[in-house]
Predict the structure of Shikimate dehydrogenase (NADP(+)).
Amino acid sequence: MTDSVSGMRAACVIGWPAAHSRSPLIHRHWLSVYGIAGDYRVEAVPPEDFAAFVKDLAGRGYVGANVTLPHKEAALTLATPDERAKKIGAANTLWLDGTKLRATNTDAEGFIANLDAAAPKWDRGLETALVLGAGGSARAVVYGLVDRGVPRIYVANRTVARAEELGRRFGPAVRPIHWDEARGLFGATQLLVNTTTLGMVGQPALEIGLGRLPANAVVADLVYAPLETALLAAARERGLRRADGLGMLLHQAVRGFALWFGVTPEVTPELRKLVEADLIAAATPAAKAAGGAG
């Protein structure tokens, strides 16, 4: 399926709002690098219009789409999801398989691929991971860790019932705890993952000391604005290995591009510098005044 006007294969990101998305920058870079005659656009679609928009993706000239907030759970019900999307309970990638609309979730593989790149062999001998938060991002992270075979995954959340839901969803490796219990586990935690928005620009800080983490621990933060969160800065000061949110953002985009355009792209330092520069520019006072932060 191609854009009926230009003849190019086209994909898009659908969100509400959507202007802040870095997906166009990532996918347009790959289109250029691989010499593909295609396009990637932003579609701001309110929740009440999402179902109609998705059902007419082909008519709008799209071969597929990324789905971001607040549509990830709705997308699961409007397409045929794979087992990964069903298990995570949300879809972030849609593609047309002939006339059939299919859905998957690439957040888990993006998280794991970023860990593999940023902290090679991070899972060698790993017994205990601690995940902060129990929302949609945590579901993707826990799915990835269970799939990789991590034997103990503590999920800390202020509302323990939400952490318990992850235990029911992903099995006995997942151990729900209250947020206040997390620090008591640091001595045995070999992988610490922040899936909350704490530490993000405009959000409260994640106030948690890392002094008790083992010297071989890895710290991952899904937040990518700022590029280095206070959590990652504290990990750097301790000499711990780190995996940042920007790396996950880049790696989760790989499979969607492959599904839409037929080429599996590479996450390169050049691409990372491109998106870093955009994030830094958006964080300047002038950009914020113009509404460009995001």
